[in-house]
Write a structure and sequence with these properties.
alpha+beta; 365 residues; binds dinuclear copper ion; Cytochrome Bc1 Complex, Chain D, domain 2; 3 domains; single chain; Immunoglobulin-like; elongated; 5-stranded mixed beta sheet
Length: 365
Protein backbone atom coordinates (compact mmCIF):
# COMPACT_ATOMS: atom_id res chain seq x y z
CA UNK A 1 0.00 0.00 0.00
CA UNK A 2 1.46 3.35 -1.09
CA UNK A 3 1.55 5.93 1.66
CA UNK A 4 -0.51 9.10 1.10
CA UNK A 5 -0.12 12.49 2.68
CA UNK A 6 -2.82 13.74 5.07
CA UNK A 7 -5.85 14.59 2.86
CA UNK A 8 -7.09 17.07 5.46
CA UNK A 9 -4.47 19.70 4.50
CA UNK A 10 -6.13 23.12 4.67
CA UNK A 11 -5.15 26.34 2.89
CA UNK A 12 -2.83 27.82 5.49
CA UNK A 13 -1.53 31.30 6.30
CA UNK A 14 1.16 31.03 3.60
CA UNK A 15 -1.53 30.57 0.95
CA UNK A 16 -3.36 33.73 1.96
CA UNK A 17 -0.14 35.77 2.08
CA UNK A 18 0.71 34.59 -1.45
CA UNK A 19 -2.83 35.45 -2.57
CA UNK A 20 -2.45 38.98 -1.22
CA UNK A 21 0.94 39.41 -2.96
CA UNK A 22 -0.50 38.15 -6.28
CA UNK A 23 -3.46 40.52 -5.93
CA UNK A 24 -1.11 43.48 -5.50
CA UNK A 25 1.00 42.35 -8.51
CA UNK A 26 -2.16 41.97 -10.62
CA UNK A 27 -3.36 45.44 -9.75
CA UNK A 28 0.09 46.82 -10.70
CA UNK A 29 -0.19 44.96 -14.01
CA UNK A 30 -3.66 46.36 -14.70
CA UNK A 31 -2.51 49.90 -13.86
CA UNK A 32 0.48 49.42 -16.19
CA UNK A 33 -1.73 48.71 -19.22
CA UNK A 34 -3.91 51.74 -18.58
CA UNK A 35 -1.03 54.10 -17.76
CA UNK A 36 1.33 53.11 -20.60
CA UNK A 37 1.21 55.50 -23.62
CA UNK A 38 0.22 52.83 -26.16
CA UNK A 39 -0.45 55.33 -28.95
CA UNK A 40 3.12 56.57 -28.65
CA UNK A 41 4.45 53.22 -29.93
CA UNK A 42 1.42 52.27 -31.99
CA UNK A 43 0.18 55.49 -33.64
CA UNK A 44 -3.47 55.69 -34.72
CA UNK A 45 -4.75 57.17 -37.97
CA UNK A 46 -8.45 56.30 -38.11
CA UNK A 47 -11.55 56.30 -35.94
CA UNK A 48 -12.14 52.70 -34.92
CA UNK A 49 -8.50 52.47 -33.82
CA UNK A 50 -9.22 53.93 -30.37
CA UNK A 51 -11.94 51.33 -29.76
CA UNK A 52 -9.64 48.53 -30.92
CA UNK A 53 -6.90 49.87 -28.64
CA UNK A 54 -9.31 50.11 -25.69
CA UNK A 55 -10.24 46.46 -26.27
CA UNK A 56 -6.54 45.57 -26.53
CA UNK A 57 -5.78 47.35 -23.23
CA UNK A 58 -8.70 45.57 -21.53
CA UNK A 59 -7.56 42.16 -22.83
CA UNK A 60 -3.93 42.81 -21.92
CA UNK A 61 -4.86 44.00 -18.40
CA UNK A 62 -7.19 41.09 -17.61
CA UNK A 63 -4.75 38.56 -19.15
CA UNK A 64 -1.94 39.99 -17.04
CA UNK A 65 -3.98 39.50 -13.85
CA UNK A 66 -4.86 35.94 -14.92
CA UNK A 67 -1.23 35.19 -15.82
CA UNK A 68 0.05 36.49 -12.46
CA UNK A 69 -2.42 34.35 -10.46
CA UNK A 70 -1.95 31.15 -12.50
CA UNK A 71 1.86 31.32 -12.51
CA UNK A 72 2.00 32.56 -8.92
CA UNK A 73 -0.07 29.64 -7.60
CA UNK A 74 1.83 27.08 -9.69
CA UNK A 75 5.08 28.36 -8.18
CA UNK A 76 3.69 28.56 -4.65
CA UNK A 77 2.11 25.08 -4.69
CA UNK A 78 5.13 23.40 -6.25
CA UNK A 79 7.27 24.80 -3.43
CA UNK A 80 4.78 24.36 -0.55
CA UNK A 81 3.89 20.77 -1.51
CA UNK A 82 7.29 19.57 -2.73
CA UNK A 83 8.57 16.11 -1.74
CA UNK A 84 10.23 16.18 1.71
CA UNK A 85 13.25 14.15 2.76
CA UNK A 86 11.07 12.62 5.49
CA UNK A 87 8.55 11.24 2.93
CA UNK A 88 8.59 7.56 2.10
CA UNK A 89 10.41 6.96 -1.24
CA UNK A 90 7.18 5.83 -2.94
CA UNK A 91 4.88 8.47 -1.36
CA UNK A 92 2.35 10.12 -3.70
CA UNK A 93 0.52 13.44 -3.39
CA UNK A 94 -2.86 13.94 -1.80
CA UNK A 95 -5.55 12.46 -4.05
CA UNK A 96 -8.26 15.15 -4.20
CA UNK A 97 -11.19 15.07 -6.57
CA UNK A 98 -14.77 16.29 -6.84
CA UNK A 99 -15.04 19.75 -5.34
CA UNK A 100 -18.27 20.86 -6.96
CA UNK A 101 -18.22 24.37 -5.55
CA UNK A 102 -14.73 25.01 -6.88
CA UNK A 103 -15.50 23.44 -10.27
CA UNK A 104 -18.66 25.53 -10.61
CA UNK A 105 -16.83 28.79 -10.07
CA UNK A 106 -13.79 28.00 -12.19
CA UNK A 107 -16.10 27.11 -15.07
CA UNK A 108 -18.49 30.03 -14.63
CA UNK A 109 -15.98 32.88 -14.18
CA UNK A 110 -13.90 32.15 -17.33
CA UNK A 111 -17.11 31.54 -19.31
CA UNK A 112 -18.53 34.93 -18.29
CA UNK A 113 -15.19 36.53 -19.09
CA UNK A 114 -15.02 34.99 -22.57
CA UNK A 115 -18.64 36.04 -23.24
CA UNK A 116 -17.82 39.61 -22.17
CA UNK A 117 -14.78 39.70 -24.52
CA UNK A 118 -16.93 38.35 -27.37
CA UNK A 119 -19.62 40.97 -26.86
CA UNK A 120 -17.04 43.79 -26.79
CA UNK A 121 -15.24 42.44 -29.89
CA UNK A 122 -18.42 41.89 -31.91
CA UNK A 123 -19.60 45.40 -31.05
CA UNK A 124 -16.46 46.94 -32.61
CA UNK A 125 -16.43 44.49 -35.52
CA UNK A 126 -20.09 45.34 -36.24
CA UNK A 127 -19.24 49.02 -36.54
CA UNK A 128 -16.37 48.27 -38.93
CA UNK A 129 -18.00 45.64 -41.15
CA UNK A 130 -21.78 45.72 -40.93
CA UNK A 131 -23.13 49.12 -39.84
CA UNK A 132 -25.17 50.94 -42.48
CA UNK A 133 -23.24 52.89 -45.11
CA UNK A 134 -22.65 56.43 -43.96
CA UNK A 135 -22.83 59.52 -46.13
CA UNK A 136 -19.06 59.80 -46.60
CA UNK A 137 -16.91 58.53 -49.45
CA UNK A 138 -17.28 55.11 -51.02
CA UNK A 139 -14.00 53.75 -52.43
CA UNK A 140 -12.66 50.50 -53.77
CA UNK A 141 -9.25 48.97 -53.14
CA UNK A 142 -8.19 46.17 -55.48
CA UNK A 143 -5.32 43.80 -54.82
CA UNK A 144 -3.10 42.67 -57.69
CA UNK A 145 0.09 40.67 -57.97
CA UNK A 146 1.82 42.72 -56.53
CA UNK A 147 0.36 46.10 -55.87
CA UNK A 148 -2.89 47.82 -55.00
CA UNK A 149 -5.09 50.10 -57.08
CA UNK A 150 -7.90 52.34 -55.88
CA UNK A 151 -11.11 53.45 -57.54
CA UNK A 152 -12.76 56.76 -56.71
CA UNK A 153 -16.22 58.01 -57.65
CA UNK A 154 -16.01 60.20 -60.77
CA UNK A 155 -12.36 59.37 -61.37
CA UNK A 156 -11.82 57.27 -64.48
CA UNK A 157 -9.62 54.22 -64.34
CA UNK A 158 -7.66 53.24 -61.24
CA UNK A 159 -5.33 55.21 -58.98
CA UNK A 160 -2.09 53.33 -58.22
CA UNK A 161 0.41 53.63 -55.34
CA UNK A 162 -1.39 55.96 -52.93
CA UNK A 163 -4.85 55.87 -51.44
CA UNK A 164 -5.67 59.51 -50.70
CA UNK A 165 -8.23 60.22 -47.97
CA UNK A 166 -9.67 63.37 -46.44
CA UNK A 167 -9.27 63.97 -42.71
CA UNK A 168 -12.56 63.50 -40.84
CA UNK A 169 -14.58 62.30 -43.86
CA UNK A 170 -16.04 58.84 -43.18
CA UNK A 171 -14.97 56.15 -45.66
CA UNK A 172 -16.72 53.00 -46.78
CA UNK A 173 -14.02 50.90 -48.41
CA UNK A 174 -14.86 47.88 -50.54
CA UNK A 175 -11.88 45.59 -51.00
CA UNK A 176 -11.45 42.82 -53.53
CA UNK A 177 -8.77 41.24 -55.72
CA UNK A 178 -8.16 40.82 -59.42
CA UNK A 179 -6.13 37.61 -59.18
CA UNK A 180 -5.28 35.72 -55.97
CA UNK A 181 -6.09 36.29 -52.29
CA UNK A 182 -4.30 39.31 -50.82
CA UNK A 183 -4.89 41.11 -47.56
CA UNK A 184 -5.39 44.82 -47.00
CA UNK A 185 -3.87 45.88 -43.70
CA UNK A 186 -3.22 49.40 -42.46
CA UNK A 187 -1.65 48.92 -39.02
CA UNK A 188 -2.24 52.51 -37.87
CA UNK A 189 -5.95 52.11 -38.65
CA UNK A 190 -6.11 48.74 -36.86
CA UNK A 191 -8.01 47.49 -39.91
CA UNK A 192 -7.45 44.41 -41.97
CA UNK A 193 -9.55 42.67 -44.60
CA UNK A 194 -8.89 39.81 -46.97
CA UNK A 195 -8.94 40.74 -50.66
CA UNK A 196 -10.59 37.78 -52.35
CA UNK A 197 -11.24 37.51 -56.10
CA UNK A 198 -14.99 37.50 -56.75
CA UNK A 199 -15.85 38.66 -53.22
CA UNK A 200 -16.23 42.17 -51.82
CA UNK A 201 -15.34 42.81 -48.19
CA UNK A 202 -16.30 46.12 -46.65
CA UNK A 203 -14.64 48.13 -43.89
CA UNK A 204 -15.68 51.48 -42.49
CA UNK A 205 -13.55 54.07 -40.77
CA UNK A 206 -12.93 57.79 -40.43
CA UNK A 207 -9.38 59.10 -41.02
CA UNK A 208 -8.26 60.89 -37.86
CA UNK A 209 -4.65 62.02 -38.33
CA UNK A 210 -2.91 63.68 -41.29
CA UNK A 211 0.08 61.68 -42.53
CA UNK A 212 1.33 58.86 -44.75
CA UNK A 213 0.81 55.31 -43.51
CA UNK A 214 1.87 51.92 -44.82
CA UNK A 215 -0.47 49.37 -46.40
CA UNK A 216 0.81 45.83 -45.93
CA UNK A 217 -0.33 42.62 -47.62
CA UNK A 218 -0.49 39.89 -44.99
CA UNK A 219 -1.55 36.98 -47.21
CA UNK A 220 1.17 35.11 -49.10
CA UNK A 221 0.28 35.86 -52.71
CA UNK A 222 3.23 34.83 -54.89
CA UNK A 223 6.92 35.48 -55.44
CA UNK A 224 6.72 39.26 -54.88
CA UNK A 225 4.40 39.14 -51.84
CA UNK A 226 7.11 40.88 -49.82
CA UNK A 227 6.94 43.85 -52.20
CA UNK A 228 3.36 44.59 -51.17
CA UNK A 229 4.34 46.87 -48.30
CA UNK A 230 5.48 49.79 -50.45
CA UNK A 231 2.14 51.49 -51.04
CA UNK A 232 0.57 53.97 -48.69
CA UNK A 233 -2.54 55.64 -47.37
CA UNK A 234 -2.17 59.43 -47.54
CA UNK A 235 -4.49 61.30 -45.17
CA UNK A 236 -4.80 64.98 -46.07
CA UNK A 237 -6.79 67.98 -44.90
CA UNK A 238 -10.11 68.30 -46.74
CA UNK A 239 -8.74 71.22 -48.81
CA UNK A 240 -5.57 69.33 -49.84
CA UNK A 241 -7.60 66.25 -50.63
CA UNK A 242 -10.03 68.21 -52.83
CA UNK A 243 -7.06 69.64 -54.73
CA UNK A 244 -5.62 66.16 -55.27
CA UNK A 245 -9.04 64.78 -56.23
CA UNK A 246 -9.62 67.43 -58.90
CA UNK A 247 -6.10 67.04 -60.30
CA UNK A 248 -6.57 63.27 -60.47
CA UNK A 249 -9.95 63.61 -62.14
CA UNK A 250 -8.34 65.79 -64.81
CA UNK A 251 -5.32 63.52 -65.25
CA UNK A 252 -7.56 60.49 -65.67
CA UNK A 253 -10.08 62.17 -67.97
CA UNK A 254 -9.00 60.11 -70.99
CA UNK A 255 -8.63 56.79 -69.22
CA UNK A 256 -11.04 53.97 -69.68
CA UNK A 257 -12.80 52.49 -66.69
CA UNK A 258 -14.73 49.89 -68.59
CA UNK A 259 -13.92 46.42 -67.32
CA UNK A 260 -12.95 45.27 -70.79
CA UNK A 261 -13.66 41.85 -72.13
CA UNK A 262 -11.21 39.88 -74.24
CA UNK A 263 -11.63 41.09 -77.79
CA UNK A 264 -11.76 38.56 -80.50
CA UNK A 265 -9.71 39.34 -83.52
CA UNK A 266 -6.94 41.83 -83.95
CA UNK A 267 -6.96 45.07 -82.00
CA UNK A 268 -6.79 48.32 -83.92
CA UNK A 269 -3.50 49.82 -82.81
CA UNK A 270 -3.83 53.08 -84.73
CA UNK A 271 -3.78 56.21 -82.59
CA UNK A 272 -2.14 54.59 -79.55
CA UNK A 273 -1.06 57.23 -77.02
CA UNK A 274 2.40 56.48 -75.55
CA UNK A 275 1.93 58.86 -72.58
CA UNK A 276 -1.32 57.16 -71.52
CA UNK A 277 0.42 53.84 -72.12
CA UNK A 278 3.25 54.81 -69.79
CA UNK A 279 0.79 55.57 -66.98
CA UNK A 280 -0.94 52.23 -67.55
CA UNK A 281 2.41 50.43 -67.64
CA UNK A 282 3.27 51.70 -64.15
CA UNK A 283 -0.13 50.46 -62.89
CA UNK A 284 -0.45 47.17 -64.66
CA UNK A 285 2.95 45.95 -65.83
CA UNK A 286 5.82 47.33 -63.77
CA UNK A 287 5.41 44.84 -60.92
CA UNK A 288 6.58 42.10 -63.30
CA UNK A 289 8.38 43.87 -66.16
CA UNK A 290 11.36 46.23 -65.96
CA UNK A 291 11.92 48.99 -68.46
CA UNK A 292 15.35 47.55 -69.19
CA UNK A 293 17.13 45.01 -71.38
CA UNK A 294 15.54 41.63 -72.03
CA UNK A 295 17.79 39.93 -69.46
CA UNK A 296 16.65 42.26 -66.66
CA UNK A 297 13.98 39.94 -65.41
CA UNK A 298 11.52 40.53 -62.57
CA UNK A 299 8.82 37.95 -63.20
CA UNK A 300 8.76 38.49 -66.92
CA UNK A 301 11.60 39.85 -69.09
CA UNK A 302 12.70 43.48 -69.41
CA UNK A 303 10.79 45.18 -72.21
CA UNK A 304 13.04 47.98 -73.35
CA UNK A 305 13.53 47.80 -77.10
CA UNK A 306 11.13 44.89 -77.41
CA UNK A 307 9.89 46.17 -80.79
CA UNK A 308 13.07 47.80 -81.91
CA UNK A 309 15.96 45.54 -81.02
CA UNK A 310 16.87 43.11 -83.81
CA UNK A 311 18.65 40.95 -81.20
CA UNK A 312 15.53 40.70 -79.04
CA UNK A 313 14.41 37.07 -78.92
CA UNK A 314 11.05 35.94 -80.19
CA UNK A 315 8.06 36.57 -77.95
CA UNK A 316 6.78 33.93 -75.53
CA UNK A 317 4.27 32.81 -78.17
CA UNK A 318 7.16 32.09 -80.53
CA UNK A 319 6.35 34.95 -82.88
CA UNK A 320 8.61 37.82 -83.86
CA UNK A 321 8.07 40.93 -81.74
CA UNK A 322 5.73 43.00 -83.86
CA UNK A 323 3.13 45.42 -82.46
CA UNK A 324 0.36 43.01 -83.46
CA UNK A 325 2.01 40.10 -81.62
CA UNK A 326 2.63 42.14 -78.48
CA UNK A 327 -1.04 43.15 -78.59
CA UNK A 328 -2.01 39.48 -78.95
CA UNK A 329 -0.11 38.57 -75.75
CA UNK A 330 -1.72 41.48 -73.91
CA UNK A 331 -5.10 40.17 -75.12
CA UNK A 332 -4.64 36.55 -74.18
CA UNK A 333 -2.25 36.69 -71.24
CA UNK A 334 0.50 34.17 -70.70
CA UNK A 335 1.56 31.58 -68.15
CA UNK A 336 5.28 31.81 -67.42
CA UNK A 337 7.48 29.80 -65.06
CA UNK A 338 7.35 32.45 -62.29
CA UNK A 339 3.79 33.65 -62.62
CA UNK A 340 0.75 34.31 -64.72
CA UNK A 341 0.22 37.37 -66.85
CA UNK A 342 -3.52 38.06 -66.73
CA UNK A 343 -5.47 38.36 -69.96
CA UNK A 344 -7.14 41.53 -71.18
CA UNK A 345 -10.34 41.08 -69.13
CA UNK A 346 -8.57 40.08 -65.91
CA UNK A 347 -6.22 43.02 -66.34
CA UNK A 348 -9.13 45.41 -66.94
CA UNK A 349 -7.72 46.66 -70.27
CA UNK A 350 -9.84 48.12 -73.04
CA UNK A 351 -8.75 47.79 -76.69
CA UNK A 352 -7.67 51.43 -76.49
CA UNK A 353 -5.56 50.64 -73.38
CA UNK A 354 -3.74 47.91 -75.33
CA UNK A 355 -3.14 50.29 -78.23
CA UNK A 356 -1.72 52.82 -75.74
CA UNK A 357 0.52 50.21 -74.09
CA UNK A 358 1.86 49.02 -77.46
CA UNK A 359 2.53 52.65 -78.43
CA UNK A 360 4.44 53.11 -75.17
CA UNK A 361 6.47 49.91 -75.65
CA UNK A 362 7.27 51.00 -79.22
CA UNK A 363 8.61 54.26 -77.82
CA UNK A 364 11.14 52.46 -75.56
CA UNK A 365 14.25 52.38 -77.69
CU1 LIG B 1 -0.52 40.44 -51.96
CU2 LIG B 1 0.69 39.20 -50.37
Amino acid sequence: MVEQRDPAVKLDRGFWIVTAVLAVLSICGIIFWYAVPLQHWLPESAQPADQVDALFAFMAATSTALFVFVCGYILYFSIAFRARSTDAPDAIGVQIHDNHKLEFWWALIPALFVILLSVLSVKIWWGIQIAQPNNGMVLEAIGHQWFYTFRYPNVKGEVPDEMHLALGVPVTLHVTSSDVIHSFWVPTMRLKADMVPGLINTIRFTPSAVGTYKIICTEFCGTQHGEMNKQTVVIQSKADFDKWYQATQAAHANMSDALATVSTGAINLAGGDAAAGQQLFSQKCSACHAVGPFSQRIVGPGLKGVLDDPAHPNLVDGDKATPADVAKILQNGFKGDLGVMPNQAQNGLSDKDIANLVAYLASLK
